Structure formats: structure tokens, C-alpha cells
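Consider the following assembly input.
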Amino acid sequence: MKRFVMIAAVSILMLPSPGKASTLEDKIMKGKQISSDNMKGNCLACHAIQGAEMPGNLGPPLLQMKLRYPKRKVLHDQIWDATKKNPQSIMPPFGKHGILTHEEVDLVVDYMYSL
Amino acid sequence: MKQTLFKRSLALLLVLVAMMAARQVVAADFQANVQTDIKVFRDFFAARFPEVKFADYANGVYAIDADACQQWKEIEEFPPYSIAVEDGKVLFEKPFANGKTYTAYFQNGGVVRQNYPYYDEKKGTVVTLEMAINECRVANGEKPLEYKGGDIAKISAYMAFISRGKPVDVKVESEGAYKAYMKGKEFFYAKRGQLNMSCAGCHVKYAGGWVRSEILSPALGHTTHFPVFRSKWGEIGTLHKRYGGCSDNIGAKSFAAQSEEYRNLEFFETVMSNGLSFNGPASRK
């Protein structure tokens, strides 16, 4: 009985809840939208991402992100404020300059981890 | 008594000579500093694009990309700016209400593109061609024209056209000119706007790079070919309209066309292009 309740609870948790990016897949989708929206991340202006057409090339291609950034925070920080690592960086400090919120950067990180 | 007077005048004379000499040295320094900047600027592009001939930088992005250049040459066979040049000629030759024309104000039949921008010592500011066109109008009792496009861009296009081939040779010879130059230089290198970018970031450091489907032009030669007929605008527009567009693109405050900020920026960018030839107007994407 106890076990049944647990399974039920887990399956309810795993149901996609409408409106919220709850499942990882949803989050990845939202992160992808943010990173290709030219009023938001617009990452494609400067980075090649697999499957994207007409990317720019000012920054390195974004691939194998999980391997290269095992720590979420490091990747989050890079997107939040690239000038911390490289004061001369042309990459916009998305969080620091109020272009993306922490929540949005998190979604972009989820998307990056799927690459 | 006479002797002390003589001594005093001699001392005064010496002081004056020394002051003049000092001024000369400082003046020489302005030009020398600028010359050093020009060399650094040019050397950067020479190292970045070793195959590009210096004179070709007057062609903007087409100097550095063979594919885009080929398309552009095809467009230039029936240049989209030719109507603007014809209209500009008519406007330029049409007498004002007082019977005079622009030719009374602009020497040499209007072949004066190469004299702008310059630092006007009396006015204490940089004077651009578009600004001079409006000053001429106001001096003749006419209303000034709007600065971004329309008639002023047409008149400027005509004057650029008849001045084609004249060398860019902007001088920075006084303290005032040097200050204006330095302001333009600072503007060019400063990061600004929500995206925290500088003109130099896109048009020096990453010149030749791609921002999605656009190739970034080198800043060397930026000002030689304006005004331009841009297919995106669907009409001829001035350099300061373009400056405003690039400011908007990075979420930065754009300044008014012919504001002191943009005139100083034009002054700096044109000094950097000394030695190229004026070749406006031009067509762009």
C-alpha cells in the first residue's frame, strides 16, 4: 500500500503540468526558445548550435556542454556575466544587464546540457 | 633705465619665443599622436586581412568578402543610388528664394567632399558636409533639412559623386581638434548599451566575423562612401543614420544625427581612413 502511494505520487509529479516548464523536456524547449529569440538570448548571433541555420561565428560553437561544463553554476555564471571571466568579452552580460532573469538563464542551461 | 627696459623686453621676448616654441611642440604632438593611432589601426587590419589592398577598404565589407563583393559589383552596374544623385544635382543647382545657389557657398562647383569633416577653430566644433549644407541654407534664408535621409542625403550624394577619387586627408592640428578627435576615439572604443558592446568590438576586433548572416565590415574606410543607398532602407541615407542604427542594435542610447557625439565619431573614423579615397555614394544591403 505504502509503495503504491509512492508510485502514484511519483507518477503525478512526472505528469506535465500545463503552463509551467516542469519536465526537463519542457525546460529544454523553453531554453531553446529563449536562446534563439533575438530579443532574449540571441545566442545564434554569435555561436553555432547544432541544427541551427545561419549562425554567427564570433564565439565558439556550443557543443558537448555537459562534458565541458560539469558544474551548472560555471555555465550559469558565463551566461549571467561573461565579462567576469573576460572583461573585454563582446558577449553580452545577459543577467547583469537585465536581459535574462536567473530563471531564464537556468532554462538556457537546461537547453545547453541537451547539446 | 634704458638698459633695464632693454633687459626686460629681452626677457619678455625670450619668454614669448619659448612659449611659441612650446606651442609648436604641443601642436606637433597632436598630429604625431594621431599618426601613431592611424598606424596601429591600419597595421591591425593589414595583419588581419593580409590579402586585402589598402585602397579597397573604401569598399566596406566588400573589400574582405569575395562572394558578397561579386553580388555587389553586379548591383553597381545599375547603381540604385543613381536617381538620388540626379535628384541631388537638381536640388544643388536650384536657386534659393534669394536667387543664390549652393555654388556661391561651396567652392569648386561643389567638388568639396574631401574637405569634410574638419575642425572649425572659430566655431570650436567639427563641421561635417551635411552640417555645412544646412548652414548654407540658413545663411541664405532657407529652412534647414532633416538630417537622416531625404533631400540632404541626395545633395550629399551628388556632392560625393562629383568629388569621387579625392583623397581623405583630415588634419588634427590644434588642441581643440585633438579634443574632438579624442572624444570620437573614446566613443568608438567604449562599451555601451544593454548589450555592452563597442563599435570597435564589432568593426575592429571581430571585423570579418559573422553575426548571423551579416559580415562585419572593417572600420577602416567606414566613412569614405557615404551616403549609401541601403536596400533595407529602400532609400539613400546618411552616415549618422547608420550610426543611429548600430546604436539601436546594441540597445544603446542613440544620439541625434549631427549631434556633437556623432560628429566627433565621424571625425575620428575619417581620420583613421586618411589616405583612402572618397568614393561615395555607394549601395549596401
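The radius of gyration of chain A is 17 Å. Ask yourself how this observation constrains the way the partners meet.
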